[in-house]
Amino acid sequence: MLSLTLSGNCSLLPRPNNRRCALFFARTKRTTLVTSALTRETVAISQDAMADSRSLSFPILVNGVTGKMGKAVAEAAVSAGLQLVPVSFSSLDKPARTLEISNIEISVHGPSEREEILSSVTEKYPDVVLVDYTVPNAVNANAELYCKFGVPFVMGTTGGDRPLLYKTVQDSNVYSVISPQMGKQVVAFLAAMEIMAEQFPGAFSGYKLEVMESHQATKLDTSGTAKAVIACFQKLGAIFDMNEIEMIRDPKEQIKMVGVPEEYLSGHAYHVYNLTSPDETVSFEFQHNVGGRSIYAEGSIDAAIFLHKKVQSKAEKKIYDMIDVLREGNMRCPTLPTAF
């Protein structure tokens, strides 16, 4: 949910921080005028886009299906009507094993087999698109492998040496979508914030910013999305130190204070950004909550479809990000039937 609240009553701004957390996140349970509900016009546009894409199907290989994110992407690919290649790779050299995803047996191979296996995949599926959701320390080696075999790929894995990643792709002339954030709506929100910061610098001069972000307990670092949003608010003149981000990782607090449903404790992103005027008579609140991994999985599939079209059209540009995917439009709506 993305919400914006404007208040002229400073009594609505709780103090101290522990009360602020409870109040901010309690608002996630109420219905606001700003919701993700589709208008009739949006539904019509999405239906038209889907009608144009119903005949589209191509093989897709998901690297990292042993992880939760990779599994979610593989399931989304099948739901979208794409041909899931029954192969994936593991970062550990173990005997080849299989796992089942959407009634498809996926064969998982270790590093020592990956060149041989990928070579056979490209022979059998010459128009394959690969989606990578592995681990940060495998990003660069995996990219080198994909580029060596000329496989177009979507890099959803964060971390690694990013400048080297881009150089590897650029030198190989392979098509790719590289983005640390695959959630389409979150990317759109970030883009809007960047535009606002660029066009209206100082609009929030003197305003105090308070930020809280809640993620699964296994996420030890601060949210990169939160840092990007904060940077925009700082350009707008808001006062904030990155060390002041309130990170919530305790599952008990997430349930009681944040309002995270128990089924999403192992995978969620709840963020609140509150701005208060110097005289405390005005407040702005920006909020976005993500439960589960479907938003990233669906965005990854849209990126793969986008990339497949670029390859087929022999587009001059080779390296893209999620902003390019958003600008292209024609993305599927997960609330509508997704079979092509």
Automatic annotation (TrEMBL):
Known function: Catalyzes the conversion of 4-hydroxy-tetrahydrodipicolinate (HTPA) to tetrahydrodipicolinate.
Pathway: Amino-acid biosynthesis; L-lysine biosynthesis via DAP pathway; (S)-tetrahydrodipicolinate from L-aspartate: step 4/4
Alphabetical UniProt keywords: Amino-acid biosynthesis, Chloroplast, Diaminopimelate biosynthesis, Lysine biosynthesis, NAD, NADP, Oxidoreductase, Plastid, Transit peptide
Naturally occurring in which organism (per UniProt): Rhynchospora pubera
EC assignment: 1.17.1.8
All residue ranges annotated as the Dihydrodipicolinate reductase C-terminal domain in the record: 186-326
InterPro entries: DapB_C (IPR022663), DapB_N (IPR000846), DHDPR_bac (IPR023940), Dihydrodipicolinate_Rdtase_pln (IPR011859), NAD(P)-bd_dom_sf (IPR036291)
SUPFAM superfamilies named in the record: NAD(P)-binding Rossmann-fold domains (SSF51735)
Name this polypeptide is given: 4-hydroxy-tetrahydrodipicolinate reductase
Subcellular localization(s) per the UniProt record: Plastid, Chloroplast
GO biological process terms on file: diaminopimelate biosynthetic process; lysine biosynthetic process via diaminopimelate
Signal peptide: none
Gene3D superfamilies per UniProt: Dihydrodipicolinate Reductase, domain 2, NAD(P)-binding Rossmann-like Domain
Gene Ontology CC entries for this record: chloroplast stroma
The keyword Transit peptide belongs to this UniProt entry's keyword annotation: yes
Reactions it catalyzes: (S)-2,3,4,5-tetrahydrodipicolinate + NADP(+) + H2O = (2S,4S)-4-hydroxy-2,3,4,5-tetrahydrodipicolinate + NADPH + H(+); (S)-2,3,4,5-tetrahydrodipicolinate + NAD(+) + H2O = (2S,4S)-4-hydroxy-2,3,4,5-tetrahydrodipicolinate + NADH + H(+)
Enzyme class: oxidoreductase
Family, as annotated: Belongs to the DapB family.
Domain Dihydrodipicolinate reductase N-terminal: 59-181
GO molecular function terms listed in the Swiss-Prot or TrEMBL record: 4-hydroxy-tetrahydrodipicolinate reductase; NADPH binding
